[in-house]
Give the backbone structure.
Amino acid sequence: MSELPSDLKYAKTHEWVRVQDDGTVTVGISDHAQDQMGDMVYVEVPDTGRAVQAGEACAVVESVKSASDVYAPVSGEVVESNAALSDHPEQVNQAPYEAGWLLRIRPSDPAELKHLMDVDGYRDFLATEEH
Amino acid sequence: MGRRTALYPQHLDAGARMVDFGGWDMPLHYGSQIDEHHQVRRDAGMFDVSHMAVLDLEGAQTRPFLRHLLANDVNRLKQPGKALYACMLNEKGGVIDDLIVYFLTEHHFRIVVNAATRDTDRAWIEAQGEAFGVRIQERGDVAMIAIQGPGARAKTHALLPAAVADPARELAPFHGVEADGWFVARTGYTGEDGFEVILPTEQASDFWGRLRSSGVAPCGLGARDTLRLEAGLNLYGADMDAATTPLESGLGWTVAWDPPERAFIGRAALTAQQSAPHPRLVGLVLQDKGVLRNHQRVLVEGGGAGEVTSGGYSPTLSRAIAYARVPAGAGGSCRVEIRGKLVPARIVKPPFVRNGKPCVATEFG
């Protein structure tokens, strides 16, 4: 069973969201998603300052097996990207919720966070996806 | 649920991620495809390749039949045990399959064909073989394990039955030996030394287990693909198929043109193509970060476009590499369209890696 921290929110497209004290949100892909994809070999993160819409493809994670878009869970401005992943994409495999984070967004409409799932909802969603 | 090899329980036991491959439930990896790749380059890894089909061809006319069936010439096989890589073509010169043929006795040859094509291969071979009176038996009673890497032969040798162990020690590359129902060949699909072992199905799990205890790591289809890509070895269905010829697929070297009177299937089409400009298969090394994937468009210098046929990440070179089919005369640099962006790549001659060592430059000015 993949690791699912209870203090995060999750999207159906397998991104996780951590709401920071300053109101920004950190975004990554779930342990389940990295496990499905296998060894990461390339990560493309957006430029700082880019405006993104919820549901818009804003980053790409590529494993030996496949390339996958990462979708913005909320609308807003990208305030930081994880540049370390350029040389160490394997951090997405090794620490998907910590060193393997992808980007940070300042939400333009924090109400959008309500559309995301809590950990129980995501766990149920994964169970239905497997069947 | 797909078809399962005799080693299916061993794959689950080793924590394999199973996937469908040509209708078979096969291991993709056992945790990390990249670790398995390095294990083969640095020491020894093993692959369950029991999904491939072993066909025994017997009869007095087997050699003349194979000289008709294959674009390579089995008359190159003079010593029993010798192996030959060959393409089986249709009348248009398209590749029905690529295979290895082993010469066992004058009236008994063995061929090993791809899993996904086994049914069409067999139908084609049977249809062509009728006029030669060749008996074709698909060996459903054997398993096949490939052990590859610089340490592969030493680790395998100690575990072979005595009857094949001694002759296996002396095997030259691309030769095999059979005894007591075991067939051991010094062949493989990774660019490393090693053995491919065909053995009775009921002995497969025991042999697999003893290899594992000797430090031979189970490796999945994922590592098999990155290893063969680095080694400059084609994948059927990606780099060639029934609509492309060996000349367009980097396999011109496997076509035996001499003697000119040998009328193999597809010869006329290949002869016509040989005298005209035709696309060819080249290697690509991506110069920027990113990953090359199958079907990406390749723009070559001086105009014209080709396509990536097999793209991926090279764990040995830490770069994206690929094969691409490009227009005649293309060379030097090109650009690959990756998600709408044109990324520079260099056209090179495969292999990319041989015996663990890089064969192509990865730093470009």
